[in-house]
């Protein structure tokens, strides 16, 4: 059985990595006697639409074109910023007979006949809604904390001089910009220059490439 791994973290800095997700999913794949043929890793905000997650889009397309049997993710929330997006993604997998394993929920989407159980739609809707509510609660607490900080005289935002200038970005990411100008895809540039796909995507948009 062929499988791929999709791992995502929200921070685009080195503060978070996908290492643990990938390692845990590889362990599961070995236990379930699956062959992991490719690993897709992405650093992008959980608030982004799926269309703004280039690696996720690539992973889903790879599943379809390469006849992948199973998509492995750490949790259901990796597949969308809200319940509607998650369910849309899952529906696409069901239509294409691609199974899905979610480690946190310990749930597999399809049975041996590649059909979802009668309880799957209800469970998926409940899980994705709970994940969305959890994100909204976190956002509320963060905003509340910021407001209290400002009310006490605190200042938000970067320190003066901490924002990189265009010229500095051109110098620092010259290899990335050169590769983009050559017409390479975001994923190809990310691999070639050892830069995160989200950074490449941001530079592509910022420099209109």
CATH topology of the largest domain: Rossmann fold
CATH architecture descriptor of the largest domain = 3-Layer(aba) Sandwich
Strand order of the largest sheet: 2-1-3-4-5
Distance between the termini: 39 Å
Low-confidence stretches: none
> What number of structural domains do the residues give?
2
Describe the structure.
There is one protein chain. The protein is an alpha/beta fold. The chain folds into two domains: 2-128, Resolvase, N-terminal catalytic domain (Rossmann fold, 3-Layer(aba) Sandwich), CATH 3.40.50.1390; 166-206, no CATH class. Helices cover 49% and strands 13% of the residues. A five-stranded mixed sheet has the order 2-1-3-4-5, sandwiched between helices. Helix 3 (83-95) links the parallel strand 3 and strand 4. The protein is globular. The mean pLDDT is 83. Residues 2-153 form the Resolvase/invertase-type recombinase catalytic domain. GO terms for molecular function: DNA binding; DNA strand exchange activity. InterPro entries: Resolv_N, Resolvase-like_N_sf, SSR_resolvase. This is DNA resolvase.
SSE layout and pairings?
Elements: E1 2-9, H1 19-31, E2 35-43, H2 54-65, E3 70-73, H3 83-95, E4 99-102, E5 107-108, H4 120-151, H5 166-172, H6 174-181, H7 186-193, H8 197-206
Parallel strand pairs: 1-2, 1-3, 3-4
Antiparallel strand pairs: 4-5
Helix pairs in contact: 3-4, 6-7, 7-8
Descriptive terms for the model:
13% strand, 5 strands, 8 helices, alpha/beta, 209 residues, Resolv_N, 5-stranded mixed β-sheet, single chain, Resolvase-like_N_sf, Rossmann fold, DNA binding, globular
